[in-house]
Amino acid sequence: MDEISPDVGFEIVVIIPALNEEAAIGNVVRDVPDAVSKIVVVDNGSTDRTVKEAQEAGAIVVHEPQRGYGYACLKGMEQVKDEDLIVFLDGDYSDYPEEMVQLIEPILAGEADLVVGSRLRGKRLSGAMLPHALLANVIFSLLLRICCGLKVTDIGPFRAIRKDRLVSLDLKEYTYGWTLEMMIKASRRGLKVVEVPVSYRKRLGQSKVSGSLWVSLKVGAKMLLTMRFCWR
Question: Which terminus of the chain, N or C, has fewer Cβ atoms within 10 Å?
Fold first, then answer.
């Protein structure tokens, strides 16, 4: 499937958490396939033109003042009404929004409940992932293989999941552990988790996480704590 057909039988909503992404957010929104029903940008406290750029590109913008990736994603989910399928996408233009076609295809075929885009298996441009970010993804992917039996190589944020399945997971980590908790709980509850290759490029603007070694270490500590859900 090279593009999303308007008659796929699923309504699709895209949720994009964003914090000070004025240089990128317009490109992200405009590159989302036309067949998507709704694009929701969640402003997580931006002080630049992120909100205006997102609105001008055609997105619905909602605000979540509580900082944290999970908080932003949950706020975006409040906008999901009749849609059946949710795609999560970063607002920094490092992912290729048009590649969500590959993410939703296994779900449409009934072969998956959650599909995670792997940057390590796809075409990753030089310098797109800093060494410590790459190492962290390798380590946590290995832990997921050992502790949960998930055959994954990445824990990237570009992913698609059925709405009802996501709601059933009752996620509790509201900051950096949110995506990891999703994968752990999906595995423990018997959902079908599939990984597909995706492309990855250098982000536009400054990273709030991988651009700082200290912040990356704090994120890593939070994610290690999230691994406790493997035994709950």
Answer: C
